[in-house]
């Protein structure tokens, strides 16, 4: 196998899955933010709140993508799980943390 360097590394092929993961999970975060505004949980539109929701959702989506890759889950199911994870955002992260603490201890 040839050594990887900037001249022979296919950046587009490697980064394309992460691009759709980020877009899908951020979209889920935007939907979650809009629901919070409509339900009154957030009193008015806040760009800071929206940005925080997008970053948290992107993180949750990437973590979900990596877990699905490790479990060798079908791409369509992975895409659905990434979208749901993006929509759940920080709730998913807290649930995952609680599960890991219960399973592996403090």
* CA-CA gap between termini: 42 Å
**What is the string of helix and strand elements?**
HHHH
Number of helices: 4
Q: Which structural class matches the secondary elements?
A: mainly alpha
Largest sheet: none
What is the helix content?
A: over 70%
Number of strands: 0
Described by the principal axes of the CA atoms, the overall outline is globular
How large is the share of residues in beta strands? under 5%
The low-pLDDT segments are none
Radius of gyration: 17 Å
Number of domains: 1
Mean pLDDT: 85
Q: How would you describe this structure to a colleague?
A:
The protein has one domain. The protein is mainly alpha-helical. It is built from 4 helices and no strands.
Would you summarize the structure shown here?
With 106 residues, this protein is mainly alpha-helical. The chain has helices spanning 11-39, 47-70, 75-88, 90-104. The mean pLDDT is 85.
Present the secondary structure layout.
Layout lengths: L10 H29 L7 H24 L4 H14 L1 H15 L2
Helix pairs in contact: 1-2, 1-3, 2-3
Give the tags:
single chain, 106 residues, mainly alpha, 4 helices, 77% helix
